[in-house]
Design brief:
Order of helices and strands: HHHHEEEEHEHEEHEHEHEHEEH
Largest sheet: 8 strands, parallel
Bound molecules: zinc ion
Number of strands: 12
Strand content: 15-25%
Structural class: alpha/beta
CATH class: Alpha Beta
CATH superfamily: Glycoside hydrolase/deacetylase
Number of domains: 1
CATH architecture: Alpha-Beta Barrel
Shape: globular
Number of helices: 11
Distance between the termini: 32 Å
Helix content: 25-40%
């Protein structure tokens, strides 16, 4: 029922042209964006008021043209490694060329934190794109992170907390290092990557609530984004995700993310295997 309410609210939001009161009135407190006390705009305002000189990157961010976005491509990656047999693995050279293209073509990478503005009907940088990497493979640190850092692109890694520190996955130290420079955001992808549609209540609660708490303890910041393992979900799953206090959740449903889908049922663009650059370009708006 709540899923239906979100969908209706999303439609209502579009019909009312972003009247935030209409959107807010149908929601419980847990899915509302928190009052933002920090972030680029606020920090800049504060600095300007105080007469503090901002670093160049910060100042540059302020000159970015903004517009209200209706559709946002949320790119879905997994492992960034040379493994042609596995469709979940994208070659590092391919990943680098895709990221370079995003930069050259004027796309602006944003985070789920930035999506709070989208939810509130506020403008985002033009040509927004969300780069997401599922499962927390160690190659996200060794192969993807250096590229993202070089190009100054934001990305979100969805971690399975029970996989942390295991051989092929990120260590807690890597996660903390990546979080420290502000480019990489982390979301929950549960504790064990279980199919959430098959679990008893206590396991469901643990996978959705506990993973959030574990990540918040590790990172020392709120974790607001969730990713359903293998895109498996039902109404009960989504209700738990809402109750746990996530602001956004992504699925494997294909297409661009739109508010009409509901903020806990956002669609994504799957980037698989050795996707050639020309095909990658065609997948973007
Ligand atoms: Zn996954």
């Amino acid at each position: 029922m709540r899923v239906l309410t979100w969908i209706l609210c999303g439609v209502l939001l579009l019909v009312t042209g972003g009247a935030s009161n209409a959107y807010v009135s149908g929601h419980s407190q847990s899915v509302l964006p928190p009052a933002r006390s920090e972030g680029p705009l606020h920090a800049t305002d504060a600095a300007l008021t105080a007469g503090i000189a901002l670093p160049a990157a910060h100042a540059k961010q302020e000159t970015v043209e903004k517009a209200v976005a209706t559709k946002i491509p949320v790119l879905m990656y997994h492992s960034i490694s040379d493994n042609p047999q596995n469709r979940l693995c994208l070659a590092p050279t391919r990943f680098a060329e895709q990221m370079e293209y995003l930069k050259q073509a004027g796309y602006h990478s944003i985070s789920f934190k930035d999506l709070e503005d989208w939810k509130a009907g506020k403008p985002l940088p033009v040509k927004p794109v969300l780069i997401t990497l599922d499962d927390g493979y160690r190659d996200n640190y060794t192969n993807a992170y250096p590229v993202l850092k070089r190009l100054h692109l934001k990305a979100t890694v969805f971690l399975v907390t029970g996989f942390l520190n295991q051989k092929q996955f990120l260590t807690e130290e890597m996660v903390k290092e990546m979080a420290a420079d502000g480019l990489i955001e982390f979301g929950s992808h549960t504790r064990s990557h279980a199919d959430l549609t098959t679990l008893p209540e206590d396991r469901l609660r643990s996978e959705i609530f506990q993973s959030k708490a574990e990540l918040e303890t590790l990172l020392g910041t709120p974790v607001t984004a969730f990713c359903y393992p293998a895109g498996r979900l039902n109404e009960k799953t989504v209700n738990y995700v809402e109750k746990a206090g996530y602001h956004f959740a992504v699925t494997t449903r294909p297409g661009y993310a739109e508010l009409s889908q509901g903020v806990l049922l956002l669609h994504r663009v799957r980037i698989n295997g050795d996707l050639p650059l020309d095909q990658f370009k065609q997948m973007l708006p």
